[in-house]
């Protein structure tokens, strides 16, 4: 069940990853980590909002049954959809062999 997985399994996995991280390597790379996290999330938010807003305007222009979505609402959607999945990130980094 997805609900049980999110409430029971995910917190210990994230907690274990936080405990096992190399703290000195994290402190050495904290500035690039923050820059990539903030800039990547902002870029993803704005790009998603632009695609949703312009795409909905284009579809409504073509006469499809799609109302045009304002840019502010598209930004809200972009911010919600641009959050990262920590389990997926840990899995990708481990598969790439990145332990530092």
Topology overview:
Layout: H1 2-20, H2 23-28, H3 30-61, H4 71-81, H5 86-95
Helix pairs in contact: 3-4
Summarize the structure.
This protein is mainly alpha-helical. The chain has helices at 2-20, 23-28, 30-61, 71-81, 86-95.
Structural description of this entry:
The chain has 100 residues and is mainly α. It contains five helices and no strands. The protein has helices at 2-20, 23-28, 30-61, 71-81, 86-95. Helix 3 (30-61) packs across helix 4 (71-81). It is elongated and about 55 Å long. The mean pLDDT is 84.
Tell me the total number of β-strands.
Answer: 0
Distance between the termini: 33 Å
* Inertia-based shape: elongated
Secondary-structure-based class equals: mainly alpha
The DSSP helix count reads 5
Strand content: under 5%
Radius of gyration: 19 Å
How confident is the prediction overall: mean pLDDT? 84
Describe the oligomeric state of these chains in a short phrase: single chain
Task: Tell me the major beta sheet.
Answer: none
Q: What helical percentage do the residues reach?
A: over 70%
* Sequence stretches where pLDDT stays below 50 over 5 or more residues: none
Order of helices and strands: HHHHH
Q: What tags apply to this protein structure?
A:
single chain, 100 residues, 5 helices
